[in-house]
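RECORD TYPE: inverse folding
INPUT: structure tokens
STRUCTURE:
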């Protein structure tokens, strides 16, 4: 049976936005473009950039959700790197610049930076018709064979997705249902708990997740140690750190406001150096991973030997190493003491919640 190729309405469609943040309404416009176009180009820029929505984050969101699109997230620095002097603007226009300036800038990005023209622009705004006309003029003046750009209006009345980026930014966490998990994860504050053996770290991590109504990430290294009956190899150190980070990224998409992490690759770095006298370069890199709050658990209650731990003196050695290493790396941290309940209270105060 012969398969038929269904031709789409347009060859190449364009979607432009600040995407600060990228929400379900934006996604619906982009998906409509994919439904009607063979190719989709997404442009994003903002000046000034808004808190929590910098260019790198917007680039990550778009790449995760729309890997098949031609994406260009622009900053002044990136524009100067990829454009030739004299070919056009060297800085992106400010948000309050005239609309004609923005429309022609988008035409410049398409034709001179990406080397393409478009025959449709997708928006959820009334300005879309004028945008399409300006793009038609811009492309036509430089390429007489360029197609006229059409405007496709998507959900103008916001009936399907009654949401705006301004409204979302007023309280990201209260409106999280309007964000894809991969986007919301960027706004989750990540708290890393460090400490020597039998310093109450794991119990505190679980207590914090329960107290704040969110999720936590368990210590993968301990799980692997148990699975391998304590016979860890040097190669396991890198795997432990990589899996720990991957589990953090997955958990952040399920978290609510905070994510509590039982250890970090910094702990794995300690064990790699202690057990093998060296560390994989990839592990060294992962140990640079940053957190919104780093907590160091004091060894201030009786040591409990559960059959997997070394001597109590090792706990003291670990604690000292963490103190020195955090200071050397310039990482400000919170030293928590006392019972689990007292530590939860100290962390709650530090988080301002």
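DESIGNED SEQUENCE:
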């Amino acid at each position: 049976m012969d398969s038929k190729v269904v031709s789409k309405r347009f060859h190449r469609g364009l979607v432009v936005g600040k995407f600060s943040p990228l929400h379900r309404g934006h996604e619906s416009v982009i998906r409509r473009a994919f439904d009607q176009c063979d190719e989709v180009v997404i442009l994003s820029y903002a000046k000034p950039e808004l808190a929590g929505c910098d260019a790198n984050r917007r680039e990550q969101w778009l790449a995760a959700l729309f890997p098949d699109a031609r994406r260009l997230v622009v900053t002044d620095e990136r524009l100067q790197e990829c454009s030739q002097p004299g070919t056009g603007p060297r800085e992106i226009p400010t948000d309050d610049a005239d609309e004609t300036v923005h429309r022609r800038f988008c035409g410049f990005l398409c034709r001179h930076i990406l080397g393409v023209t478009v025959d449709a622009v997708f928006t959820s705004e009334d300005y879309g018709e004028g945008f399409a006309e300006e793009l038609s003029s811009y492309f036509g003046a430089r390429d007489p064979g360029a197609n006229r750009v059409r405007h496709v209006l998507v959900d103008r009345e916001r009936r399907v997705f009654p949401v705006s980026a301004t409204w979302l930014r007023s309280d990201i966490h209260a409106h999280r249902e309007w964000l894809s998990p991969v986007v919301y994860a960027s706004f989750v504050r990540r708290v890393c708990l460090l400490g020597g053996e039998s310093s109450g770290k794991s119990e505190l991590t679980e207590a914090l997740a329960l107290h704040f109504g969110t999720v936590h990430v368990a210590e993968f290294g301990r799980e692997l140690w148990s699975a391998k009956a304590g016979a860890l190899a040097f190669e396991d150190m890198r795997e432990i750190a990589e899996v720990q980070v991957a589990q953090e990224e997955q958990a952040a998409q399920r978290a609510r406001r905070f994510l509590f992490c039982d250890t970090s690759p910094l702990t794995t770095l300690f064990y790699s150096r202690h057990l093998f006298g060296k560390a994989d370069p990839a592990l060294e890199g992962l140990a640079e991973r940053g957190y919104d709050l780093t907590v160091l658990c004091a060894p201030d209650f009786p040591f409990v030997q559960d059959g997997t731990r070394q001597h109590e003196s090792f706990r003291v050695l670990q604690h000292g190493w963490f103190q020195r290493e955090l200071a050397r790396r310039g990482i400000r941290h919170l030293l928590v003491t006392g019972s689990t309940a007292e530590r939860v209270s100290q962390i709650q105060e530090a988080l301002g919640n």
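NOTES: Strands lie at 10-17, 37-44, 70-73, 120-123, 150-153, 189-194, 215-217, 258-262, 293-297, 334-336.
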